[in-house]
Amino acid sequence: MGLSVKHLLGIKELNVQDIEQIFQTADNFKQVLQRPIKKVPTLRDTTIANVFFENSTRTRLSFELAEKRLGADTVNFSASGSSVSKGETLIDTVNNILAMKVDMIVMRHMASGAPWFLANHIDASIINAGDGTNEHPTQALLDAYSIREKLGSLKGKRITIVGDIMHSRVALSNIYCLNKLGAEVTVSGPPTLIPKHIAALGVRVEYNVKKALEWCDVANVLRIQLERQHKPLFSTLREYALYYGINKQMLDSLERDIIIMHPGPINRGVELNSDVADSRQSIILGQVENGVAIRMAVIYLLSGKREISE
Ligand code: CP
């Protein structure tokens, strides 16, 4: 029992056994979450700090719930309103939090690589809750877990990732995770939002979204990350929606039903229309539900505890 890594920094560092172990542990926690009392006391002697330098709804709440449902104590830090504005460094900020007898750090940071940098300077385990445009490992784990739940296995399944691949940490972590689990991956979207050499990661590139959807079993649709685009990469959101947005008419024109996923937050009417986001083919809220069990599993396995107490 236990992962091959001390931290969960990226999917790139995990092996297939780690991922399978996280999924099997999440299966157990998912059962716990169906009970009237959705809690185990396994981590009652553990304190976890959620250190967020960038905005979040799903990831932050999901981690906090996962920690509470494992019986851990939690503290939450947001960069806004903190002493970061007075010039305090990342290492000083985290070392001050750890000095208050905190055992584990969950961190989201706008700088790609920040969790790896921190891991070289502190002893506590770190879970990357999203770093810049690099990785978002727990999102990729919950996405793959949700596909496994729907289709039984990832092996040989065809997944299309559509949208702003260039700026998406979800895309990169998904590609690593899906490849490790034996799925086939296509990326699709405007050429300006797809990195030039992405095929080197073992994915297909299909600029025509309709063709990419015809090919796949599952479409994971990503948001346009305007906050990370420092020059125009397409003309208007309206034109993006027209050529790359997914609507019900497009889905109905496919020969078979595909599964629709989105990590959130959705820009309704841009990458995804409401008639798709809220359709029976969508598993978007199921992804969010699975996120808590996956994060419980990751925290539990990194904590080194031996048994899931009843
Ligand atoms: N999927 C995701 O990371 O959402 P948040 O930014 O709301 O955490």
Characterise the protein shown here:
This protein has 310 residues and is an alpha/beta fold. The chain has two domains: 11-135 and 288-303, Rossmann fold (3-Layer(aba) Sandwich); 137-283, Aspartate/ornithine carbamoyltransferase (Rossmann fold), CATH 3.40.50. The chain is built from eleven helices and nine strands. It has helices spanning 16-34, 58-69, 90-98, 114-119, 137-151, 169-180, 209-215, 237-244, 248-252, 274-277, 284-303, and strands at 47-52, 73-78, 104-109, 125-131, 158-162, 184-188, 204-205, 218-221, 259-261. Helix 2 links the parallel strand 1 and strand 2. Helix 1 packs across helix 11, helix 2 packs across helix 11 (284-303) and helix 5 crosses helix 11. It starts with 15 loop residues before the first helix and ends in a 7-residue tail after the last helix. The model has no long low-confidence stretch (mean pLDDT 95). Residues 56-59, 130, 136, 139, 263-265 line the site of phosphoric acid mono(formamide)ester.
